[in-house]
Amino acid sequence: MPELADLKEAIDATLNAFRNIGAELTWGWFWYQIGLLLAAAGIARIIASIIRARVDMTSSAMGMPGAVRRFVRALFGSLSVALFVLLAGATRTAMLMMTWPSRSYVLAIATSLATAWLVIRLVQGIVRDQLLVRVIGVAAFLVAALSILGLLDQVTAALDSIAITVGGLRLTPLLVLKVAVLLSLAIWLASLISKFIDTWLTRSGDLTPSAQVLISKLASIALIVLAVVIVLSSVGIDLSALTIFGGAIGVGLGFGLQKIVANFISGIILLVDKSVKPGDLVTIGDNFGRVSTMNVRYITVAAGDGREFLIPNEDLVTQKVVNWTYRDRNTLVEVKFGTNYDADPKVVCALACEIAAKTPRVTDVHKPACVLTEFAEYGMRYSLTFWITDPEAGMGNVRSDVMMALWDAFKKADIRVPYPVRDIRVRGGALPVETIADIADEHD
């Protein structure tokens, strides 16, 4: 019967597999490789313990960019696995040079699995996206499994056999995978180098903030372009074959990416002419705050209350911008107030200047000044001006401090602040008290 024949074949296959496993376990080279793996694991653990005891990774990683610091910490945490991969790989290479490949097959399996595990641990330490970590982990174990089964070359050939030709360029799934992996790695390395350059420029006191940002952005762009060129050349792509894509990109830049290009050029202009620098206090339209960062497409203006305005670079070139700290940090602050007509204007101005001079944060580089500006309907109006040197700390708070000090000083000097008073005259008789109260409420 067919069912019994299939069952017999399954039983025979299972018994054959057990015989192969038994033969493998009784083979001397199998236990020899197991001993080498155990020795490599022990040596790797001992060396890792010695390195951890002598190296303080917390202090050593200080000052590094965030991605580099996370990578170093992940590598330090998986140091024994990394050393095991190096020792097992070196042992496997040495055995391939001295004896048959079949006598080091277990070493190859262990090295492949340990390498996949190391890659996953390092990716988990660097990348915060859990989905990306899972994708990379599955890819690493898939490559390791194919290598163990001896199917990696066959799968690679199959992926390379499917191809389409576009403008003289042969596109295959294998080429796309290579470009994706190598380009991601190259751009990541370029960003790390860019962060190192940015950190070095920040610590350099010889460059202005605008020059630091300009050099950092140009270096970042140059590194990314270099990474793309190196990756495309390394996978065998002729750059001249990309002319059709270059033409399409040029058309896109001409029509769909006008604003992006305009913001990019405007950002370069701002960094060169130094009209706006990181740390400047600016007013752009209705937005007021301190310039915290300058990017390729926009600048970030911190309002001081937790908000951050992202303003395109083009707006800074085409619109009116008030830079409170363009040449120096001295900033004029104005306080407007009024008194009744019983007060002596000379006494009021002298008292206001004295109060402003005693207020913290008011600089003595320029003396406070107070002038009488108007004889208004309800009293006299004044304008008190003074200077501060730290506008980034806020101007509303120092203005409030001066006004509260003026209020206390006016109370002591019996100087009254005017307020509107209405007189109600009734002709032809008296009104009830309730009616008078209603009229007063309406006027209030």
Outline of the structure:
This protein folds into four domains: 22-150, no CATH class; 173-256, no CATH class; 265-323, Roll (SH3 type barrels); 331-412, Alpha-Beta Plaits (2-Layer Sandwich). It contains 16 helices and ten strands. The protein has helices at residues 2-25, 28-54, 57-60, 66-77, 79-98, 105-126, 130-149, 152-161, 173-203, 209-234, 243-255, 258-273, 313-318, 345-358, 396-412, 433-443, and strands spanning 164-166, 169-171, 281-284, 287-294, 298-302, 308-312, 321-323, 331-339, 369-375, 380-388.
What does this structure look like?
The chain has helices at residues 2-25, 28-54, 57-60, 66-77, 79-98, 105-126, 130-149, 152-161, 173-203, 209-234, 243-255, 258-273, 313-318, 345-358, 396-412, 433-443; strands at residues 164-166, 169-171, 281-284, 287-294, 298-302, 308-312, 321-323, 331-339, 369-375, 380-388. Helices cover 61% and strands 13% of the residues. The chain has four domains: 22-150, no CATH class; 173-256, no CATH class; 265-323, SH3 type barrels, CATH 2.30.30.60; 331-412, Alpha-Beta Plaits, CATH 3.30.70. It has a five-stranded antiparallel beta sheet. The protein is elongated, with a radius of gyration of 38 Å. α2 (28-54) runs parallel beside α6 (105-126) and α6 packs antiparallel against α7 (130-149). It is of the alpha+beta class and 444 residues long. The protein starts with a helix and ends with a helix. The chain has 16 helices and ten strands.
